[in-house]
Amino acid sequence: MKPRLSRALLALGAMGFCAASHALDWPVSQPRIAATFGTPSTARMVTGVLLAAESGSVKVSGPGELVYAIEEGKHPAGLPTSLGSFVVFDHGDGMIAVYAHLAPDPTSRRPREARPGVILGAVGESGWIGGKGMLFQVFDREQGAWINPLLVLPPLADRDAPVIRSVALTRASKSWVLGEARSIIQGRYSIEIDAADRTDAPWTAGPIAPFSIRISVDGIEVAREVFDIAKGSRGSLDFFSLSPKPQTRLRTPDGRYSITEKLFTQGKATVEAIVEDVAGNRRSASWIILVE
Amino acid sequence: MDEIGKRRLATTATALAGIVYFLAFAQSLPKELVIVPAWARSVARAPTSPRSSERGGGAAIPFRTAGRFGYFRTDGEILFAAPEPYGLALERREWAEYEKDSESFSIRAATGETSATARIAGYPFFAGERRFVLGPDQASVSELGRNGDVVWSHQFSSIVTAFCGGPRMAVFGLLDGELIGIDPSGEGLLSFSPGGSRIPVILGSAANADASLVAAVSGIDRQRLVVLEKRSTDYRVLYHRWLDSDFRRPISLSFTADGRRLVYESNEGISIWDVDTNSESSIEARYRAGAGSTARRGKLIVLQTGREDDVRLLCAALPDMRIVDAALPDGAALAAVEDDSIYICVGGDILRCDLEER
Hints:
The structure holds 2 protein chains of 2 kinds. By secondary structure, chain A is mostly beta strands. Helix content of chain A is 7%, strand content 44%. In chain A, the strands form 5 sheets. In chain A, strands 1, 4, 6, 7, 8, 9, 11, 12, 19, 20 and 21 form an 11-stranded antiparallel β-sheet that branches. Chain A has a 5-stranded mixed β-sheet with strand order 15-24-23-17-18, with no helix packed on it. By secondary structure, chain B is mainly beta. Helices cover 6% and strands 53% of the residues of chain B. Chain B is globular and about 105 Å long. In chain B, 43% of the residues are buried. At the A-B interface, strand 6, strand 7, strand 8 and strand 19 of A face strand 9, strand 12, strand 13 and strand 17 of B.
């Protein structure tokens, strides 16, 4: 199968998966997002949604059955648990949910079968997490990929648009920040954007990733990336279903998302960036730069 | 010969036959295996920081007990007993403390010297004389070299649920039911999905020392034991069995030191599969730790069994004869089995018991 066709099928699968009737409920009662899917955190990009909470129960998000449960530091083979105490449920149709960083359960008796709302533990800070809360991840067995949980969870009330901090054109390790630089010489540049969504969470794992990023040059869309899936493949983690990009190349050392490459030819160029959160709040900005 | 003479002759013949039998066919009573206490040491009196030992004293053995960790020698010398940190990777040659959000850590020898410093986010763990770091996402692993630099990193398709580290191959079991084997250079030697179950997942994995055999317990509804054998270029299924168990957690699974038996947690308790005879046996006991620990030149397995409040020490002659089944105090843990000596940690004390035939 040709790569582009397989990617398109993957994207269609992801959309179908998300539109299925197996939408899940939030595992905590008052979710406050500390990191969205694609948020850059230490050494990796988050492949779930981190929820900040000082206390409270963690509920099973939908009907399902327990697949795997482990308490922090209790692996018989001595494997550490960077997800702390975590529980995995199969919610049917190949959808697996991971509930991580829970408060340890001394009895190690997590529920085996679950209806929506059954309590499986409490929020915690076990394992690698920057504050108190939990990580919720959704894995699609059919595609072998992590799915953005916000696609299968009920929408949250959100009227704050994401922010665009900067857009830069980069070539040979040198960056020109649009708005600061007036001109560039013609050639192929990487278009990088520093954008983040807003949150009222008391702590975050990093600048919250928006849901989608679009880049247009002279009115023509040159890139449209949606933080929909992430797939571990050939030893690296690729984000995006339509044009998979390894996380190591997606995030630049100075904190921007490297979205696409574009050849800029002599003349004036108008670069527009549009970012959206999952609730549809949109922010756009544009710049004109002279190409010499 | 009259009647009395016949009786005397018969009696004498019987007595002679008895004497001949006892002289010619006598067997000594079988020796009994007994556990003899050798020494006990309190970690409370040990130095709290590592120091070099000038005496020989045998190999250093790691321990964790009563909120402290360190090393002791087989002669009873405790090298140090430091307060246990948040995170600790501890094995025979070296150890590393790490923070909850660890981005760097030092690797230190049993005698305390720093052998390497690693700058990488994640939790270190050591196995098979190899150093690994589990990434913050539980789905990526790196291996460190002698200087603490990263030799290879691998992002798995899903969460790592099972692990077995060996000098030739480290085997990682994944949430999505895949089994991945990676050699010290980072090359993938094995990629296998046991399949056959309604829900795929790897709950336990094991490999023998030369990585010629790899085993896994996988799946839910039904659970399955699969043993793979290395052929010239790849691994093929050597043995498989559907299990009655329904575990939803990681399970203990390990080859014995000689690599000829696989010991694993099962519905029956402890099951043992013999590579050479392709037969299975089981011992009724709740398995806790010590899968690969053998004594008496591999004829005996030593295991920690029971529950949190009922810790037991089990010594069984292979394949399945229970020799010793002793209750241990609450909180006791099997520290090591070295030749014919068993080391147990009990509430801040380290005990050595020797297996002897008498």
